[in-house]
């Protein structure tokens, strides 16, 4: 999941990156139709795509019906790593999510619930929500890879905004991140 878009008719929606070996599998996703419904393919590469999806699965619907908790990135499903979901919210909302998951997940399936994912939050300055989404999308699409895998225009098209807006958001985010890094280096 790259970004949650909020529910439509009570069904959660998000933008997700999907990877595949066979491009035909993207259109033939019948195995996941009860939990992952592709509404629109936003960008398709050789073995990946960015898609707008509805997620009417049991776990997603359970989280979506509680106003005080929500799924955020990183949230992913893979053959190798299984299902990993990050949930944020109030104490009440997180307790609801935990209690609901414990009652839903069979004991034979391994489930780990932790309070936080360890991270160096000092090294990751807080960005305003929209700039955070633009920056995260640019990173996910490979804008900061060498060589670049996309352009600002590609990011803009995926998010439905102007390229100039993407440029402004990225410049601001880069400034905040680099200045934060420089400040941390000078303090260490």
State the secondary-structure class. alpha+beta
- The spatial strand order of the largest sheet comes to 1-2-4-3
Q: Sheet with the most strands?
A: 4 strands, antiparallel
C-alpha geometry: globular
The tally of domains stands at: 2
Strand percentage: 15-25%
End-to-end Cα distance: 35 Å
Helix share, percent: 25-40%
Mean pLDDT across all residues, rounded? Answer: 80
Question: Over all CA atoms, what is the radius of gyration?
Answer: 18 Å
**Tally of individual helices:** 6
In sequence order, what are the helices and strands, one letter per element?
EEHEEHEEHHHH
- Count of individual beta strands: 6
Uncertain regions spanning at least 5 consecutive residues: 117-122
Concise account of the structure shown:
The protein has helices at residues 24-27, 58-64, 91-104, 129-141, 152-159, 163-187; strands at residues 3-4, 13-19, 37-44, 48-54, 69-78, 82-89.
Properties at a glance:
188 residues, alpha+beta, Arc Repressor Mutant, subunit A, 2 domains, four-stranded antiparallel sheet, two-stranded antiparallel sheet, 38% helix, 22% strand
Describe this protein's structure.
The protein has helices at residues 24-27, 58-64, 91-104, 129-141, 152-159, 163-187, and strands spanning 3-4, 13-19, 37-44, 48-54, 69-78, 82-89. With 188 residues, the chain is α+β, with helices and mostly antiparallel strands. It folds into 2 domains: 3-104, no CATH class; 121-187, Arc Repressor Mutant, subunit A. A hairpin with a 3-residue loop joins strand 3 and strand 4. Residues 117-122 have low confidence and may be disordered.
């Amino acid at each position: 999941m790259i970004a949650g878009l909020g529910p439509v008719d009570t069904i959660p929606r998000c933008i997700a990156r999907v990877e595949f070996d066979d491009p035909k599998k993207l259109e033939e996703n019948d195995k996941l139709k009860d939990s992952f419904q592709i509404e629109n393919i936003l960008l398709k590469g050789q073995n990946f795509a960015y898609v707008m999806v509805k997620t009417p699965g049991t776990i997603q619907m359970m989280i979506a019906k509680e106003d005080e908790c929500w799924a955020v990135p990183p949230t992913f499903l893979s053959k190798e790593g299984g299902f990993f979901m990050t949930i944020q919210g109030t104490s009440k909302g997180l307790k609801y999510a935990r209690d609901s998951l414990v009652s839903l997940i069979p004991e034979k399936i391994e489930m780990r619930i932790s309070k936080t994912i360890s991270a160096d939050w000092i090294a990751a300055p807080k960005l305003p929500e929209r700039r955070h989404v633009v920056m995260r999308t640019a990173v996910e699409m490979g804008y900061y890879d060498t060589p670049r895998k996309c352009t600002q225009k590609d990011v803009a098209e995926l998010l439905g905004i102007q390229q100039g807006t993407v440029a402004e958001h990225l410049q601001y985010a880069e400034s905040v991140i680099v200045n934060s890094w420089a400040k941390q280096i000078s303090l260490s």
